[in-house]
Sequence to fold (477 residues):
Amino acid sequence: MKRIRVIEIIQTEPKNQNVLVKGWVRSFRSNRFIALNDGSTINNIQLVIDFENFPEDQIRRITVGSCIAAQGELIPSQGSGQKSEVRVVQFEILGDADPGIYPLQPKKHSLEFLREIAHLRFRTNTFGSIFRIRHHVAFAIHRFFHERGFYYLHSPVITASDAEGAGEMFHVTSLDLSRIPFNDQKEVEYKKDFFGRPANLTVSGQLEAELAAMALSQVYTFGPTFRAENSNTTRHLAEFWMIEPEVAFNDIFDNMDLAEDMLKYVIGKVMTECTDDLKFLLDREEEEQKSKPQQERNEMNLLQRLQFCLDHQFERVSYTDAIEILRNSNPNKKGKFQYAVESWGTDLQSEHERYLVEKHYKKPVILFNYPKDIKAFYMRQNDDGKTVAAMDILFPGIGEIVGGSQREERYDRLASRMKEMHIPTEEMYWYLDTRRFGSCPHAGFGLGFERLMLFITGMGNIRDVIPFPRYPGYAEF
RNA sequence: GCCUCUUUAGCUCAGUUGGUUAGAGCGUCGGACUGUUAAUCCGCAGGUCCUUGGUUCGAGCCCAAGAAGGGGCGCCA
Fold:
């Protein structure tokens, strides 16, 4: 007999039909009622077991966390909590869970505790919801680009270029670190290493995506990204997933449209496809809000925030205008900012970004045309000679979720900018070649997948929206 | 990397001005009950008060160093 998934069984009209279900026990009440979950949905199926008809030693093995297979009749429930239930005819314990040492109890656990047992936290309602949603978000991203005629490009995970300038990199080597070969100058002899040269884990697939966009027109990457930065925050990981579309013939404003459309498409899809899980996370957040002082509570709940994001155009503000708004803002005048907004040309602090998004505009903001000196070498230089066609999308509660730009397509401008910023042009010949042969205007951006997950789930810590987080000093599981 | 807070039972947390034998809820275990919804009721067990050192007649509580965890900042997605 074939097993039926819980998500199917709870949608099936109960007509005393024979069914087989398999899953993990969430609770066992009155020695009679089993709440069984198989991860196909946040909802459980209730199994009713007449303990009088089964050996006691078998009944005693039905414990929270144990895995069972049960066969019986699907009948209308006599209780009020559920539409149907399975009257168990026979069952089998597939895996015991010793209640004396199984760490999950049918009660609320702290996220910090669950992070320490990340191998088991999938079995909680919260993390079940998060990782079902994570799948739907990833899938929606692929669908969005596929429907628009983009090609999914697999950019390399190992790169030999250390000139991408997006942060500290993890070295990749097959050398024996206790016996590193040095030359006479005490330099590492990379010729003896696996690739014959230094290699690193990628910090971005953008440069490779640009190469492909110069032929396929519209591509995107979606893969793991690695930063060896010593970042200890609720918004950073050493290993995270990034989506990087790159589009030939797009300018900075097409780029904004694409990013905004994509975010709205994905959020819309999740709202229609993950209603049960979002409802659970909504209730969870509401409960959490109750224990906070009025001042720190969210003005909108999770679903309202998602809907608001769909209903409103993201505010587009130039860096120059943003500086003026911040300079004239109340917190700046009253000296409330930790970093006073000084002159044009300095980078915005996260408190400034938060003010713009959460207090001034109260919606997602796209900041664009940043001073060239605080941005990367590949961004297109504007005619004013001071700014580049960069854009960042800032979300409430999260900050920067997207960073992108129109790329510098003019060979001379790019090469001279690289020299100014000490980027080795010889090593990057392949990147410059795209500007030598059939160059064209193009643009792209990077979307932090886990940061989008934070917004969609309402979770507060990025370590809770990725199955196995990696961060400084931590690579467990 | 910097700042800050926390660390007491399996989990979540109380613990007064430094004072005898360190508590609660939930969970486990034993029992009762059996159409429950994190079932309910009764009972038992469970502690290196993070570690080390110091102050003191006396430290869970005060001081110092270290460890682990949370939050903020920086770097960024």
Q: What stands out?
A: The mean pLDDT of chain A is 94. Residues 125-147 of chain A form the longest helix (23 residues).
